[in-house]
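Subject: design request, 516 residues
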C-alpha cells in the first residue's frame, strides 16, 4: 500500500518544527520570524541592437518574416540568458521605420527596399516589446533624430521619405543625408515621430545615440567641410536672432532634447528618456582628457542635458580602455558623475565589440570586466550599456560565460526612477500549491488597483537567495524543481522600478510516495 504519511509542520526555514517533534501543542509553540530577505541587486544591464547597415538585426535585408522573427527571438533569449535586463532596439536609423508607421516609410534594412512592407506582414517593434517583456527585459526604442540617409543604401528613396516630401529640410553632407536641425519643422517632425511610438507601443524608454549635428567631414585634401546650413542660419538672423552660429546650433539641439523630455512624460509619465552622447563633453574635462570636442563639433551640450535634468538617463560612450590616460574610462566616468547634480541615472556605454577582439582599437576581455567593476564602485553610476549585440551573439573571446560566471552571476533589477510617476506597486497576495509539476506559486494582487508590472520572486535555498523576475501577468509560477527551496519571498514592481512590501512564505518539504 502507498505510504500516505503527512509531513510535519514546517517553520519559516522550511524545516520540520522541533516543537512538533517533541510533541509540544501548536498553541504553545513560539512564532518563528520569517527569514530576512536581502536587498535586491540593482543595476542597469543594457545592450544596443543595431539595425542600420544590418549590423545586428536583421542580419540580411532579404530574410523572410519567419527568419527575422527567429533572429530577434534568439537575440532576446541570449540577452535574458546573460542576465541583462534591457534591450535598446534601433527603430529609426535614417528617417525610416522598423515598425508600422504612417509618418515614415518602412526601412530597407528590414525588407530590402525602402517603403516596402514585410510580407507576411508583421510589426517588429510590437513583436520585440511583447517578447522582451515576456523575458523580463525592458525594451527601449532607439531613434536617430536627424539622419535621413545612411551611406550604404542599396535602393531608391520611397516617395514618402522626407528627402522627397520635404527636400527643403534635407542637406547632403559627408556621403549622408541629414535633416537640418536649424529647421523648426525638423524638430517638430522628430517629436511627432517619437510621440507616435510612445502612444502606440508599450515601450519602457526612448533613446537617442550620439548623432546630432554630423561628425565633421573633410574633402579629399583633408580640408574640413562646413555643414550646409547657411539658409536656416540666415533666416534665424533675419528674424532677429543674435547668437553666434555655434551657439545657435547648440540651442537647436537643446530645444529638441528639452521638449522631448517634457512631452514624453506628458504622454506616459513612466517612460524614460535617455541619450548616449560621445563620451567626452569637451577636451580638458577632466584636465588630462584629449579627443573630439563634441560641444563644438556635434553641437551637443550633453553636460547641460544632465545638469538640467532633461534626460532620465545619460549613457556617455566611454569607448576607451581603462589604461589609456587621455581617455581614461575611470576619470571620465568620475567627471560625469560629478556633473550629475540632479541625480539622474548614469549608465556608461561600453565598446564591448572591441573586448577580446583583434585589430586596431581592441582591448583584452579583462578590461571590460574592469570597466564594469569601476562603474559599480563609482558613486552615482548604476549600470552599463554594451555596444553591441553582435559581440554576445558571437560569444566573442568567450565573453558570455565569463559574464555569467562573473559580474552577471545574479539577476538584477534596473535602478528605480522615483522622479517619474506610475501607479503604486500592489501588495502581493500569494500562496503555494502542490501540483503534478511540483510546487507552484499562485500570484495575485491584494485588493484592487493597478496590476503589477513585474513580480520579484526571491527563493531561499540552503546556501543562498536566488532572484527571479516574472512578468506581472503571470498567475501561476512553478518553482524550479532543481532547487531545494526553503522559503519564497514575493514583491511586486511597478513601471518605474518601485517595490511593494514583501510577502514571505515557508516552502514545505516535498513528500514522496513510496510503493512496495
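Subject: RE: design request

Done. Sequence follows.
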Amino acid at each position: 500500500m502507498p505510504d500516505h504519511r503527512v509531513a510535519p509542520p514546517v517553520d519559516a526555514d522550511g524545516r520540520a518544527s522541533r516543537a512538533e517533534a517533541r510533541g509540544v501543542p501548536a498553541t504553545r509553540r513560539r512564532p518563528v520570524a520569517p527569514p530576512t530577505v536581502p536587498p535586491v541587486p540593482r543595476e542597469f544591464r543594457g545592450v544596443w541592437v543595431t539595425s542600420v547597415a544590418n549590423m545586428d538585426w536583421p542580419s540580411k535585408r532579404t530574410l523572410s518574416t519567419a527568419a527575422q522573427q527567429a533572429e530577434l527571438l534568439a537575440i532576446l533569449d541570449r540577452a535574458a540568458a546573460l542576465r541583462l535586463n534591457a534591450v535598446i532596439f534601433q527603430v529609426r536609423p535614417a528617417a525610416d521605420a522598423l515598425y508600422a508607421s504612417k509618418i515614415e516609410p518602412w526601412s530597407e534594412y528590414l525588407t530590402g527596399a525602402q517603403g516596402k512592407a514585410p510580407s507576411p506582414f508583421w510589426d517588429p517593434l510590437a513583436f520585440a516589446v511583447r517578447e522582451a517583456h515576456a523575458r523580463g527585459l525592458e525594451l527601449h526604442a532607439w531613434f536617430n533624430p536627424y539622419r535621413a540617409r545612411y551611406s550604404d543604401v542599396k535602393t531608391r528613396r520611397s516617395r514618402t521619405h522626407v528627402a522627397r516630401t520635404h527636400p527643403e529640410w534635407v542637406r547632403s553632407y559627408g556621403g549622408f543625408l541629414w535633416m537640418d536641425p536649424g529647421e523648426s519643422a525638423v524638430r517638430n517632425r522628430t517629436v511627432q515621430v517619437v510621440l507616435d511610438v510612445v502612444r502606440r507601443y508599450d515601450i519602457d524608454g526612448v533613446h537617442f545615440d550620439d548623432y546630432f549635428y554630423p561628425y565633421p567631414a573633410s574633402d579629399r585634401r583633408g580640408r574640413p567641410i562646413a555643414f550646409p546650413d547657411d539658409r536656416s542660419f540666415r533666416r534665424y538672423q533675419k528674424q532677429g536672432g543674435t547668437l553666434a552660429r555655434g551657439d545657435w546650433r547648440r540651442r537647436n539641439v537643446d530645444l529638441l532634447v528639452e521638449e522631448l523630455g517634457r512631452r514624453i512624460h506628458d504622454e506616459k509619465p513612466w517612460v524614460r528618456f535617455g541619450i548616449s552622447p560621445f563620451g567626452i563633453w569637451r577636451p580638458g574635462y577632466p584636465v588630462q582628457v584629449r579627443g573630439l570636442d563634441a560641444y563644438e563639433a556635434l553641437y551637443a551640450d550633453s553636460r547641460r542635458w544632465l545638469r538640467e535634468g532633461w534626460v532620465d538617463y545619460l549613457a556617455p560612450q566611454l569607448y576607451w580602455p581603462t589604461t589609456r590616460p587621455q581617455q581614461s574610462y575611470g576619470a571620465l566616468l568620475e567627471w560625469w558623475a560629478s556633473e550629475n547634480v540632479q541625480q539622474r541615472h548614469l549608465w556608461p556605454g561600453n565598446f564591448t565589440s572591441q573586448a577580446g577582439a583583434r585589430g586596431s582599437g581592441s582591448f583584452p576581455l579583462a578590461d571590460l570586466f574592469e570597466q564594469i567593476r569601476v562603474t559599480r564602485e563609482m558613486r552615482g553610476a548604476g549600470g552599463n550599456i554594451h555596444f553591441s549585440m553582435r559581440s554576445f551573439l558571437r560569444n566573442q573571446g568567450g565573453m558570455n560565460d565569463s559574464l555569467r560566471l562573473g559580474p552577471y552571476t545574479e539577476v538584477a533589477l534596473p535602478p528605480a526612477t522615483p522622479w517619474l510617476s506610475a501607479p503604486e506597486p500592489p501588495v502581493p497576495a500569494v500562496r503555494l500549491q502542490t501540483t503534478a509539476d511540483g510546487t507552484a506559486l499562485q500570484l495575485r494582487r491584494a485588493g484592487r488597483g493597478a496590476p503589477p508590472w513585474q513580480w520579484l520572486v526571491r527563493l531561499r535555498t540552503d546556501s543562498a537567495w536566488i532572484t527571479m523576475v516574472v512578468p506581472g501577468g503571470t498567475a501561476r509560477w512553478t518553482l524550479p524543481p532543481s532547487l531545494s527551496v526553503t522559503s519564497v519571498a514575493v514583491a511586486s514592481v511597478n513601471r518605474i522600478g518601485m517595490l511593494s512590501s514583501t510577502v514571505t512564505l515557508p516552502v514545505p518539504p516535498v513528500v514522496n510516495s513510496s510503493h512496495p
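The first strand starts at residue 44 and ends at 49.
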